[in-house]
Amino acid sequence: MDTASLEYARRHLQGQSERYGITLLWSLMDNFEWQDGYKARFGLYYIDFQNNLTRHQKVSGKWYSEFLKPQFPTSKLREEL
User: Which family does it belong to (predicted)?
Assistant: First the structure.
């Protein structure tokens, strides 16, 4: 496992979360929240609870899947932030 890259990504995402006061990558998929039920949508995949629990990748999920690829250019990440 590439622990140095993992630690960099973890620290970076944590720093962005603290800097902008937002929650990043709360969950892989939408789930049940005690206060909001199924109305809160935090996942990288949208789950259609009315249609056989069909999963749909969100734009954030697509970006994150590209980010996780080894060939993802770090310069592209800097441009987006």
Answer: Belongs to the glycosyl hydrolase 1 family.
Q: What is the mean pLDDT of each run of 10 residues along the chain (81 residues)?
A: 65 79 75 82 86 90 79 60 53
CA atoms of 2 and 39, how far apart (whole Å) = 36
The secondary element (H helix, E strand) that includes residue 7 is helix 3-20
Burial class from Cβ neighbours inside 10 Å (0-12, 13-18, 19+) for residue 81 reads exposed
Q: What token pair was written down for 77?
A: 């990440």
Question: What whole-number distance in Å separates Cα of residue 57 and Cα of residue 29?
Answer: 9
**pTM of this prediction?**
0.57
- For the chain, the structural domain boundaries read 25-80
47: left (phi over 0), alpha (psi -120 to 50) or beta: beta
